[in-house]
Amino acid sequence: MRILTRYFASEIIRATLFVLLAFLALFAFFDLIGELQAVGTRGYRLEHAFIYVLFNVPGYAYELMPTATLIGTIYVLAMFAARSEFTIMRASGLSNRQAAGLLLRIGVLFALLTFVIGEYLSPAASEFAEKLKLSAKGASLSQEFRSGLWAKDVIRANGVTGDIVGSRFLNAREIKPNGELIGLRIYEFDRAFHMTADIVAERATWGGDHAWKLQNVTESRFPPDAKRGNTGLLDITAAVVTTKMAERPLVSEITPGILAVLFADPDRMSASGLAAYTRHLAENNQSTERYEIAYWRKLIYPFAVFVMMAVALPFAYLHVRSGGISAKIFVGIMIGVSFQLVNSLFAHIGLLKSWPPFATAVAPSVLFLLAAVFALQWVEKR
């Protein structure tokens, strides 16, 4: 069995990597064609387009790994069936359970590779690609919004660890690719949503450890007495204390990473990043469904490799008269495309219908696994 496992593994790994490289080359080519339209815009040159496309390749590798595994496994099993090798293996005592276990052990490698790419390589590469593109064009992240970027944060009594004593809303006119905020305005409120401060800063730079450094600051504070309902307009105006400072620290749970999430595709984010941002949204009483679904999809997606290999297993029982190798590969491509479509469809429907995030993420894999079991039983009866 050890020799048989090595034989299967070497053939499936070679076929899967070949299919994956072919898909990546195709997607990279189409991406490059699309980027050529932007070449020459400000400082965006051809070399920037090549680098941008190159650093988007890990994201495609993550998305296409289950499909590539499916097609590669189908090709190898179809070749074994065409050469009657699989028939000889079955005659030698290879049961269906042993064949499934053999593919399961091989699938561990692809599942781990998918997890590493999706958790570490793809998020970092995608973030670098977007920052490179923005830097080359001289653009900022928030230029897509007419009023700039808005974010909500809580105010704690002792930095970021104490009790919540209020909330703040931040508005930045621009966010530079390095995380610097330009044209920042902050509105602070107490627990009763009475306004306590209006802070305007020319720019803000990240200092680490939940601390921002505000520059050229104008801070207007409203004393508690000025917030009473019977206070007149003249009294409120007289009670406001305005202070101008060259620099001022701001302790906040909002980090450049959290701000970048607002413009990032959740499917290209890491599971740890999604978990952190989901917690931030929950603490600020904001909707978390979209990111919870993306989080569970990120955790479950590597296991789709096992599902795709289970779907490929029935093809080993089909004789050549049931269709040539090319026909089986075509069917495999259609199944892989269908899985991607169903996966995306369930994510959108789950968000619209407020389905449980875990069920939304796991349902496509369960459906295709059940289909694989049914197909295996069907080919056995034939």
From TrEMBL:
Main location: membrane
Recorded superkingdom: Bacteria
Transmembrane feature ranges: 62-82, 102-121, 299-318, 330-352, 358-379
Cell location: Cell membrane
The entry's keywords: Cell membrane, Membrane, Transmembrane, Transmembrane helix
Alphabetized Pfam families for the sequence: LptF_LptG
Keyword hit for Cell membrane: yes
Protein's name according to its UniProt entry: LPS export ABC transporter permease LptG
Species in which this protein is naturally found: Noviherbaspirillum pedocola
Upper classification of the organism: Bacteria, Pseudomonadati, Pseudomonadota, Betaproteobacteria, Burkholderiales
